[in-house]
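Summary for the steering committee. The consortium agreed at its last meeting that each partner would contribute one worked example illustrating the joint modelling workflow. Our contribution is presented below. We chose a case with several input lines so that the handling of multiple components could be demonstrated. No manual editing was applied between input and output; the record is shown as generated.
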Amino acid sequence: MATLEKDDPEVEWIRRTQQGDGDAYALLVARYERRVFSLVYRILRRREEVEEVAQEIFIKAFLAVRNYHFEAAFSTWLLRIAINHCYDQLRRRRSSRLTYFSEMSEEGEQAVVLGTESREGGGRVQADLENRDLAQKLLERAPAEDRVILTLKEIEDLSVEEISKLLRLKSSTVKVRLHRARKRMLADFRRWQEGK
Amino acid sequence: MTMRCRKVRKLIIEEGARSDELNRHLAECAACAAYAEDWAGLRTALHRVAEDPAPDPTLGFAARLARQLPDALAEARAREVSLERTGRRFVLAGVLAAVLLVLGLLVPPSGPIRSPEAAEMQTARSEAMAAQSYPIFSNQTIEGEYEFAPQGGGH
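What follows is the complete predicted structure of the assembly.
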């Protein structure tokens, strides 16, 4: 998460956006759209929803931009809005353990089943793919809080300090939550492995 | 699982530096070694998940979004106004309720406005009191003038 350089035009774009300039905001959107798309996809894991959710996030940020006071990097502020929005989405459509397969597309479900069945015939690569599908599935089944923190750490590869800034939590709190989430996920992972 | 195993597993998950002591424990304890292996497997799997590329924004996403901003702004303002109105109504209702409560506390409990029965009783009592308390008004003269009647009848 980069901080602003003095001659970065972003400062000017932000100030103009705060005065209601939509063109200036389009420049900011163009700069961060990929970052937001990536984050939304990685947290929600629904390709077809990414653009719509990203749009909602950018509109929400535009409506709130007057509350941005340059205390943190604009990217941090924007990603915080994105995370909170995704978190709300997750809570709204809480994918529980019971509904997981029912929420999957038929193709996706078959892919997981086939991956599991063909393990014996495959080698290391096949086992890796299978584990990837399993990890993805476990992430989707995880409680919203675990899912967000695990995505930020394990998938987005952010540091504890960066996560604490994004979530406005103390580093120690992030560490505790991360530990709990990892422990729960590993327990699920092992249970699944043992069950096979 | 011993206390030692618990501590070791915590260290594995937290991915701190692996001390010689920890490595020695892993060499001796098959269960913790399996735990460490599973954790490594999960980490690798998560890295594979991270390799899955996110969809790219469609061409012109930013420009399309910018065109939607005036509508979004108008909608947000309308929502704000509506919220403000609702809020104002709540405040007014609250003030009204408070005024009524104060009035309710100020009105005497046996007052005529309480109930018809209470009102009748109150009227009857007032009349009775009037008859007893004002004997000086003996009779009424013409055009509403009162004659001051001497008390005691001694004069």
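The CA atoms of residues 58 and 129 of chain B lie 92 Å apart. Chain B has a mean pLDDT of 81.
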